[in-house]
Write the C-alpha cells for this entry.
Amino acid sequence: MFGLGQDIGIDLGTATVIAYVKGKGIVLREPSVVAVDNNTGNVLAVGKEARRMLGRTPGNIVATRPLREGVISSYTETEKMLKYFINKVCGRFIFAPRIMICIPSQVTEVEKKAVIDAASQAGARKVYLIEEPIAAAIGAGIDISKPCGNMVVDIGGGTTDIAVISLGGSVVSSSLKVAGDKFDEYIVKYIKRKYNMIIGERTAEDLKINVGCVFPKVQDNEMEIRGRDLASGLPKTITIKSSEMLEALYEPAMMIVDAVHAVLEKTPPELAADISDKGIYMTGGGCLVNGLDKLLQEKTGITVMIAQDTESCVALGTGKALDNLDKLDGKKRK
C-alpha cells in the first residue's frame, strides 16, 4: 500500500511520542525508548518493546531514551526512532510526508536545528516547528487567535512549559527542566535516603501514578514495592504511603509553582486580568500527579483547570496546526 505525501503532527516527548495524521487523528502513541545492539549498532526495538527492556538488558544491548529534558541527547538514536515511527504511520510512501514537530518554548537554535535535521534524515519532505504551549492551548480547545490572555502550563516528561498566549503567539513564556521524570528522580532519592534501598525508574513511575500526591489527601493510600537493599544487597519489599510521596514530591512541585508565579509577575496587567477571570489551563501527562492543580490554585489564588485528554493535547494541537501548513508554505514562497 503506497501512501501519498501525508501531513503528520508529532509530539516528540521525552517520555512518549504521539503522532497525528491529518484526516485520521492520533494513530500512534509509543514510549520514546530505543534498544540498540552495541556490537553491531543495529536498532533491536523501538517504543513499547524497547521500554520493557529498560534496566533489564545484557551488556551488549542498551535500552535508552534518546530525548532528555525535552531536547535530543542522542542524535542518531532519535533519527532511527523517528524513521521507525514515520514508516509505521505512513507505510511506504511515494511522496515524503510534511511533518510538524513540537518543541519546548525556550530551546536554542542549535537544538531546533537538531530536531529539523533528525526529522529530515528520517524521511520528512519538510519540517515545521511549533512551540509546545501553543500546541497544547490549541489542543485544549482554547481560541488563541483572540486578543485576550490565556495561560497554559504544559507538564510533560522532561520539561514544563509555561506560556501566556494572546493573538496566536506567546507573550511571556518559560521552560524549566522539572516535570514527570524529575518527580521519578525525587522518588528514587527519597526511597534511597529513607529506606536505604534502590528502586528502578519504572517502579518510581508506578509509585507516582498510583500513590503519588503533592497536596494532602483525605485517604492515605499505600502500595507495595520491591527493590534492592543497599546494606545486604538482597531484594527487599516495603510498603509506601501517599503521605510519604507528598514528602518526596513537594519540592519539585513547588519549583513548578514558583515558575508559574514568575511568569505571572512578567505578564502585562491587561493579560493578567484575563487570566484571573479565565483561570490557568494545565495540560500534559505530568499534570496528572494527584493534587498538583490544587497546590497551584492555593499558591496563586487563580482557578486551575486540567484539560480533557491532557496527554494528547499537544499532539491534537499540532494536528490542528497542520491545517495551516499551506499558508506557511505560501508565506515562504512570497
